[in-house]
Design a protein that fits this description.
Blueprint lengths: L4 E4 L2 E3 L6 E4 L2 H11 L3 E3 L3 E4 L4 E9 L19 E10 L2 E7 L9 E9 L5 E6 L4 E6 L4 E12 L12
Antiparallel strand pairs: 1-2, 3-12, 4-9, 5-6, 6-7, 7-12, 8-11, 9-10, 10-11
Amino acid sequence: MPRAVHASNGCAVAPEGPLRLRAEDADDLAVISAVVQDALVSVKDLTYDHRERRFMLVANRFRWESKPANADENGIDGAAIFERTWCALSFALVETILYRGFRRRDDERILSLLAIRPGEEAGTIDLEFAGGAGVRLGVSAIEAHVTDIGEAWPTVWQPDHSSGDPP
């Protein structure tokens, strides 16, 4: 049986399996934030279903949970040992959306997701991107899901936070 990583409330995720997480409070949201940190999101892949009150996005995320302990920023001896995968991230019970630092019509722009956290104002969730961009969701409660979609692929590039710039 493969070693499990990232346990939460008695649940565990195998490092080679697809990720499926649900958030219902600030602590759960912090777990989702950690696994989608450094995800790349195209502005055209941000969507809101007004009838369902659901905000959704598709992201290319770095698989932090599969990083070998002995790997550095160059992999292991320069080999591609890191992984990326596509994931879907959704937020339910969304009443309002505010975009900051980018235009929704900038379809070709790629945003680098830094964090997801409860906003300073009650009833908000902030998605923080590099370069000061952001999305603030007005929600009646925290209800978020992230699910990996498709197969992971190898990469030699690991996000690097030493310079403060996205990779």
